[in-house]
Amino acid sequence: MSIRRNLGIDFDVCRLMFEGVAINLPAMKNIIPNQLGRRGKNNLAQIDLLLRVVTCIDLTSLCGDDSECNVQRLCHKAENPIEPYLLKQLGVNPEKFHVGAVCVYPARVKDCVKTLKGLKSFVPVASVAAGFPSAQSHLDTKLYEIKCCVKDGAKEIDIVISRNLVLDGEWEELYNEVKAMKEACGSEISMKTIIAAGELGSLENIYKASIVCMAAGSDFIKTSTGKESVNATLVIGRTMARAIKAYYDKTGFEVGFKPAGGIRTAKEALLWQTMIRKELGCRWFYPHLFRIGASGLLSDIEQNIFLKFYGYVPPKCIFAYQ
User: Fold this and answer.
1) Is-contact 8 215, C-beta < 8 A?
2) Catalysed reaction per UniProt (predicted)?
3) Mind giving me the DSSP string for 11-74?
4) 258 is catalytic
5) Which of 82, 159, 277, 282 could make a disulfide contact with 130, Cβ separation 3.0–4.6 Å?
6) pLDDT band for position 320 (50/70/90)?
7) How many whole angstroms separate alpha carbon 248 and alpha carbon 225?
8) What does each C-alpha distance from 271 to 146, 268, 306 come to in angstroms?
9) What is the pLDDT of residue 1?
10) Does 110 participate in catalysis according to the annotation?
11) At residue 91, does pLDDT exceed 90?
C-alpha cells in the first residue's frame, strides 16, 4: 500500500493551522460513546479485527531491568505473536504473521537486531530516544542518542518532546527541535513523536502540539510514553486524530497515529481501532499508519481469539510474552 511520506511544512503555515483553536471537552466526552456505538460483529469478524490489531502492535519492553535475555524473548514473541496451530485453524500463514515492531531502550537495540536477524524476521526494531521519558536532556545529547540508535540498526525511532515548550507556548522552538531530530533520524527511518499528552495541560495544547510535530516532519504522532499519570485516553486520541485529519486535508501527507500506555485488553484495542476508522477511515488501520504501544495486550488478544474460535481458553495455557 503506497503512502505519501510526510515532508513537513513551513512553521508559518503550521501556525495558521492552530491559531485560535478551541476544543469543547464536555462535548468531546459525549461524542465518544455515540461515535463508537455497538460493534455488533460476530465472533469471526471480531477475530479478523483482533488479528489486524496484532499486526499493528509495537511489542514493548521498557523496564529498568531489561537484559539481552528479556529482549530475546520479546523478539521471539514478536515473530510468533499467536500460536501457529491457532493461526492455521484461522487460515492465516504463521510465517507471514507478526507484530508491527519491537520497541526497546537504545541499549537493547543491538540485541534485538541480532536476535531478529537470527530468526530471519522482517519485524523492525523501534527504539525510544531523545531523553525518554522526560526529554530533560540537552538537544545535542538527544540528537546523538538518535544517531546511535540508527547506527545500531533501529528502523523506527520514538522520540519524546520537551513538554515545557508546549506549556510555555514556544511553538517555533518545538518545531525546530522536532525537525532537528527528524534530520538526525535520516530519510529512511520512521520517526514517531511522543507528545506526552497527559502532561500538556489542555486539549488545545494537545491539538497544537500534534500539528507542530507533524509540520516538523514526524511520520507518526504518539500519545504517551506510558510513564505519565494520564496516558492514552479516547478523548486524547480523538483530539490527535482530528489534528491528523486537518493536516492531511491541508497538505496531502498521511501521518500515522500511535496510542500507548494503559491499553491492556482486546476490548480496549477494538475501541481504539473503531475510533481511528471512524475519524480517519479504514486506510489508517494498517501498520504503516496505526500502531499500538503495549506489553501485556498481546496475551489478552490471543486468549480472546482462542475463546471466540473454540469457545474456551485452556486453563493453564501460557500465551504471550509478559
Assistant:
1) yes
2) 2-deoxy-D-ribose 5-phosphate = D-glyceraldehyde 3-phosphate + acetaldehyde
3) HHHHHHHHTT----HHHHHHHHHHHH------HHHHHHHHHHHHHTEEEE---TT--HHHHHHH
4) yes
5) 159
6) very low
7) 25
8) 33, 5, 20
9) 52
10) no
11) yes
- pLDDT tens digits for range 289-315: 999 999 889 999 999 999 999 888 766
Mean pLDDT throughout 15-22?
A: 90
Amino acid making up residue 16: L
**C-alpha cell at position 216:** 516538523
Residue type (1 letter), 45:
A
Per-residue pLDDT reduced to its tens digit, 162-211: 999 999 999 999 999 999 999 999 999 999 999 999 999 999 999 999 99
How far, in Å, CA of 55 to CA of 74, rounded?
15
d(CA 118, CA 116): 5
Is 12 noted as a catalytic residue in this protein? no
* C-alpha to C-alpha distance for 130 and 148, rounded to whole angstroms: 11
Burial state string for 87-100 with b = 16 or more CB within 10 A and e = fewer than 16:
beeeebebeebbbb
Whole-number Å distance between alpha carbons of 226 and 218: 19
Q: Quick check: 98 and 125 in contact, CB under 8 A?
A: no
